[in-house]
Design goal:
The chain is mainly α and 523 residues long. Helix content is 85%, strand content 0%. It is globular.
Length: 523
């Protein structure tokens, strides 16, 4: 498809996106971010949560849409093998993300939500600690990639790409510090707009790089430039928000690292949980199989953004009510659980049944049939993953992050052993199935800890209605499989949505409140 289009067309589109991103960043850099009030009930609370979820959700859709459109282009240019090498580089950097963040972002949001006056001190310490951690990561990444190269597993270009992505962690973590503060202030709308600008700049520069023939090394360079621009905008807004930086406090810095250590372990184990299969698959089956598996994983990464958007909108309120109003905590959790399961079950049925169409749209026939087979299995991680996402942050709000680390350690150990045992014989199918089963393994400790804390997890009550609607959706999809994929998908989706409402999976009064809040959020 791309061979029939002159490269200067893609260069022009990429340059236009980059210019638009620069204009958006310039506008955002002149805006003032005002903190929200800390109420956690009533219409004002609903409007605030709606805005803090709706605007980031819109930004996520726009950013992901741009990324997918770009992936449709570059996957056809670089092919499965080079995509496999790039996936390995991105995957390695994914392990260092939690190490350089060290759980400090979540800690900053939680503590500033409770004690807004301490924001300058926390921000100053977190920024400096993250800078030191990010600088230390760069040589470690290069050493790991050098080992892969000496073992003849990657070409030299992959080392360069990984090095650029490692350097991109430095401005990236600086930007996350600002994002964490604005999350505590419940101004996710501001950072959501920055996210759109980042996506536009990354995709724009990436299109130019691919059109000039710079391959996946050009993609890594684009990510570095985009992260630097994002950090510049957010740090300028951060400086206006907190004023003069607080002095360094070594005693408090050590205390922060100790408190955030379990959060870092949670994120690191979560990264291992989701990424170890790619490394095992690469070593045991080769980069071509990683390439088709990586194409399927792009959809998984996209769907994983939805719970994070909702959870981040809710987390400041969860952090406050956890210490004062357990009934309010349970109420927020129950409503979030029902909403996310309604979304997850329908999405899993749809993507699994139409996996071939989804993979063809993203990467073309070169990634079929194996990419579709991987996606059809992988997507079933979604329902239990959404449950685990909201449950995890409820436990963090209750200051039980150490138990989360234990849960992730158990699930990650299961994931690693199962992948090593079965990937040599079953390849990507084993990796995909292990990801799904590992989510169930992770849920069991979460359930036990929540019960000890007297937090109810009404998963069965929240799941049976979406499950019944999902069966009807599957039947509708099978009955309309003779139609083109898009109208068949639309009809099946209408059946699911109608049953979700009719069965009361989302109570009508809650839907009415959400709709009213959404309208208020847009006003």
């Amino acid at each position: 498809m791309t061979d029939q289009v002159p490269s200067f067309i893609f260069q022009s589109i990429g340059a236009t996106l980059a210019v638009l991103a620069a204009l958006l960043f310039w506008w955002l850099s002149r805006r003032t971010v005002v903190a929200e009030s800390a109420t956690h009930s009533g219409p004002t609370f609903l409007r605030r949560i709606a805005r803090n979820a709706l605007v980031p959700l819109f930004a996520m859709v726009v950013a992901r849409g741009l990324t997918w459109a770009f992936a449709i282009y570059y996957l056809r240019v670089i092919g499965p093998e080079n995509n496999g090498f790039y996936t390995v580089a991105v995957n390695i950097i994914g392990f260092f993300g939690p190490l350089t963040d060290f759980g400090l972002g979540t800690l900053l949001t939680r503590e500033v939500s409770r004690r807004p006056g301490d924001a300058p001190l926390y921000v100053a310490l977190v920024r400096r600690l993250r800078l030191l951690l990010s600088l230390a990561a760069v040589p470690l990444v290069l050493l790991i990639m050098l080992g892969y190269w000496l073992a003849d597993k990657i070409p030299a270009e992959t080392i360069v790409a990984a090095g650029l992505l490692a350097v991109a962690l430095i401005p990236g973590n600086a930007a996350i510090t600002a994002t964490s503060l604005f999350a505590a202030r419940e101004r996710m709308d501001y950072t959501a707009l920055v996210q759109i600008g980042t996506a536009m700049l990354t995709v724009g520069l990436g299109m130019v790089a691919i059109a000039f023939g710079w391959g996946y090394v050009g993609l890594a360079a684009s990510a570095l430039i985009a992260n630097t621009a994002t950090a510049a905008v957010l740090l300028r807004a951060l400086a206006r928000e907190i004023g003069t930086a607080a002095p360094w406090d070594s005693h408090l810095a050590r205390g922060l690292l100790l408190v955030s250590l379990p959060l870092m372990l949670n994120a690191l184990l979560n990264g291992l949980f989701f990424r170890i299969d790619v490394q095992v698959l690469h070593i045991m089956r080769g980069e071509a199989e990683v390439g088709v598996y990586g194409a399927a994983y792009k959809y998984i990464e996209a769907f994983a953004l939805l719970p994070s958007t909702l959870v981040l909108a809710l987390f400041p309120a969860l952090a406050r009510v956890a210490v004062s109003d357990r009934a309010a905590l349970q109420g927020i959790y129950d409503k979030a659980l029902r909403l996310m399961l309604a979304i997850a079950v329908g999405s899993a049925v749809c993507v699994s049944f139409y996996a071939t169409s989804f993979i063809w749209l993203l990467g073309g026939s070169e990634f079929l049939p194996h990419g579709a087979a991987a996606l059809a299995i992988l997507i079933w991680f979604l329902p239990i993953s959404y449950v685990n996402a909201i449950t995890q942050y409820v436990l963090i709000a209750l200051n039980r992050q150490t138990w989360i680390a234990v849960a992730f350690a158990l699930a990650t150990a299961f994931n690693l052993v199962t992948n090593i045992l079965f990937i040599p014989h079953y390849g990507y199918a084993a990796a995909a199935a292990t990801t799904v089963i590992s989510e169930i393994v992770l849920f069991v400790p979460f359930l036990l800890v929540a019960r000890r804390l007297h937090v109810a997890l009404p998963v069965v009550n929240a799941a049976w209605r979406p499950a019944l609607a999902g069966v009807a959706m599957l039947a509708a999809a099978m009955l309309t499989r003779g139609l083109p994929a898009l109208p068949s998908m639309a009809l099946a989706g209408l059946v699911y949505a109608a049953l979700i409402v009719a069965l009361g999976a989302l109570p009508r009064e809650d839907l009415a409140r959400i709709w009213s809040a959404l309208r208020g959020a847009r006003d």
